[in-house]
């Protein structure tokens, strides 16, 4: 099957999407699928990307091309209103522009790795349905619910009895109301402290925390989530100007360009620099920069004290939902925002939540009920809190979870025996099954599903003929173990997606070579966060919740791997040579006296 992997897009999360697209390209099962990279730019153009550009560090490293970047790092929107000829010239440098009516001729299925408005709200999904192309993830309805945090709270309240203090403020009401009076209204409704959220953003973009009884803090937080940035003369005089306007253009720390300034659209950082400088030459009033993609309302939630978690729900081949083991987010930060999520080492992830078995089971029951009631389908990650009293509070369903190799959803699917490659196959297969529910193109999708299921079954049979490669890593110190584990995960993923090899992870520990211990690891161990997490469970212990979940998910595991989840096994060198030829051993930055396969 030819799989169009759509990544990028016009939303603020485009760089996260780009990383997810690379994950899909690298880890998709090459025996089943032919991946075709389709970059969607900020203007909504679909571009079959030149293969070598897929592995760029950032979108702005290749698009718009360097010749258009100048002194600033910009997205294509900052070039302003381009002529069709100029736009085509830019696109031709990076790939082939295609139109939606060409999709069905280019690929059999679209894997959506895009996030945010227009990408996971039903927009791209509706376009693909119109042209009869099956796509990954929930249906139109599930997608539209999954992007709207305000609607989600109301619907989750109906589904599972959400007991959480929330309110919302429209931009019109915010601008017309006295700030002090409005702040008092909000405190009376949700209490203090509280969290302000942009309701249509993901990746923790547009999140602000108000913890002090301060009107100024309140106004600043709300404007931040409306993507309104005020600049005072004092601030302008205290910053390096070129660096400041560049930050405004960055989507992870600024509001993004273009912006409206005094009713005029400003596209480029250089233009913004001139406009702000000119303003302060004649005025001391603040400059208000308003994103061209600002929110019309903000969601406000009372601060919840408790253990933060994220829990995925997927489906077995018969479309019955199964809640995965929940992950606890242990953050040494006040707000788990974009920086904490993607650019900080201040967070740890624990599976399952460090609470009672009953509380973990309640989390699974509630997210499963919400998944079924809101008609999500395929996969949804639902976040929430477990309070000190054991109460479960849900929020923020995410219908297209982040797709880096170490993303939460992959860690949770690994606990039922699926690696990243298996998980991507699941997303494609189950999405085709989900598309059949719409009553459109049913026969075509059924044929596609039958063909893919047969190919998956053949792939499982062929694994016995694959060359087994022992991926040996670890060491005799914590530092050595951690360093090799980081590299081993990359090797493991690359081998898992190959057409020739089957990775067999082997962890080495002990005092030294004379007192070494070798452990054959199951799939889920390769998705632990740190090597020390592997060491902690080498005794073979399994949390009862994970054991329960594996039983519930057995149909899924068997369908995509052909076997139940393995357990850790202590082995000898002799055993190692029996399971993998000496010519097929790969040591990862670790000294072991055996022939090496590279």
Describe this structure in words.
Its cofactor is Mg(2+); Mn(2+). It holds the Pfam family Dala_Dala_lig_C. Residues 223-429 form the ATP-grasp domain. This protein is an alpha+beta fold. It contains 22 helices and 24 strands. Strands 14, 15, 16, 17, 18 and 19 form a six-stranded antiparallel sheet that branches. Strands 4-3-2-1-5 form a five-stranded mixed sheet. It is globular, with a radius of gyration of 25 Å. The two termini are 30 Å apart.
State mean pLDDT (0 to 100 scale). Answer: 92
The profile of the biggest β sheet is: 6 strands, antiparallel
Content-based structural category: alpha+beta
Count of helical regions:
22
- N- and C-termini, Cα separation: 30 Å
Task: Write down the overall geometry.
Answer: globular
Radius of gyration: 25 Å
**Helical amount:** 25-40%
Strand content: 15-25%
Strand count: 24
* Stretches with pLDDT under 50, minimum 5 residues: 589-598
Question: Features of this protein?
Answer:
globular; disordered C terminus; 6-stranded antiparallel sheet; single chain; cell wall biogenesis/degradation; alpha+beta; 5-stranded mixed sheet; nucleotide-binding; PreATP-grasp_dom_sf; 21% strand; D-alanine--D-alanine ligase; 598 residues; peptidoglycan synthesis; 22 helices
